[in-house]
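Protocol step 4 of 6.
Sequence for S-layer homology domain-containing protein (Psychrobacillus psychrotolerans) entered exactly as in the expression construct, tag removed. Do not edit the line below.
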Amino acid sequence: MFLSVSNVSAAPLFKDVGDDYFAKAELDFLASKGILVGDPSKDFGLSQELKRLEAAEMLVKALGLEVKAQSDLVISDVPRNHASFPVIAAIVEKGIIKLDENGAFNPNASFSRGEGAVFLVRGFNLTGTTKTPFVDVLPEYWVSEFIHVLQANSIATGYPDNTFKPLVNITKEDFAILLARVLNPAFRKVITPVPVPTPPVPTPAPTPTPVPVASCEKPGKVKKTFVNVQVTSLWHKPNINRPVDKASITTPVNITKWTKSMNLTQKWWLVDKTDTQALFGDEVATLKKSGKWTRIAVKDQYVPYQKEGYPGWVPSSHIVETTTDTSECPIAIVNAKSTNLYQDTNKKKVYIPISYTTILPVVKEEGEWLHVMTPANGIKYLAKKDAKVYKNYAAVPKPSQKDIVNSAKQFLDLPYLWAGTSAYGFDCSGIIYSVYKNHGILIPRDSFYQATKGTSVSKKNLQPGDLVFFAGNGGKGKVYHVGLFVGDGKMLHAPHASSKVKIESMNAGNYKRNYAGAKRYLK
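Step 5 output, structure tokens:
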């Protein structure tokens, strides 16, 4: 440990770290030890989220770990010839930052303040306990013990409302300050509790008001699984994808690139190979694993044969488990055709593009932006103009006929995609499922199940927003197609892989011959 702080530099360290910066001494100290490399011409990025690789580099320097050119360690997302492999190997082999269940290090991923506490306690073998834990660090949260250690050693002092915000992504500023306090006790700030005056007798003491937790999200006891990519396609079997499907099964995915790269024959090939899609943030159930694939069920997509939801195979890297409980958070439902989640507080660096009907918990509203919680990478930023915010899904106001029809019309001319449920490509039932879900109504995912629910409507009593169905054998066979009635004998629908979303007559040709009935889901 280093005890002297008298040799603090008065020279600029970074553009955004001036002499009046409250923690300049801490950053100067790290620079003096070679842990930070100052550059007065550049910003340090105080409020930027720290990445796992950046943390590894700082910890390797702070601990003086040996960085070997050769290692037998296998890291699935960092090849041995990568320039940062030796640093990552050193920190992983010491058990300070661990690989995920897929053997990946995720070097460019952000991490939470709670995880930052874990890295520091593991790295420096810190110990200690506290009798006055932060109010938002619950005992069942897996990082609570590590946060308590930092608190006991006056390394972490928390926020004025006695919170630590363990689930919020840690910034470069915060991690650097914590690291400096670990290395040099002179930087630690001992917080002296303020005595609570005894209420006068005989007046009874008022019931104390609980200190509110800073954010609606909190540690939970139950693990839940969520989609952690823009859109994931559920395949009928694992490992049946083609080279052209690479953009749809990698992490991150690029659905726009995938759909544009396929020719018509390749799009038709998807029939009965993919079954549906799930969007970023959708909750799923894990059914079975096979190699790098996992069979999941999408909870919001009803099918009668699987109680957990619509089943199918996805790359295991497309889903993530978390115990974070966001049930008390409001929700944002994306109602733009598509939009971006932004990575940093400047809202300039895109985290991922997201689709219409993506639903995410809202931690905070700030001006024109929503702070939303992602399944695995903390808070990101969503333009308020691109989403609707409600207390919860049950609070979404029921739509009018016009709401449903106008929402569907924005996708006119969008190319058809078999099994598609996103704004990057819909199939016939996918577009109707998505539009209704966007407006607070969950209907079955597939056309033949959509035809079994709702209220039956005669053809002469059709109203805009009703679902119209078509079946083989002159309408008496199995339902194979669905459209959205828009009035004047017309429907909006996504016909097939050779076509686009369009409006056309339902009273001509095969549609007239195979008409099988209608259902109403609007009250």
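Step 6, annotate. Confidence is low (pLDDT under 50) at residues 1-9, 191-199, 203-214.
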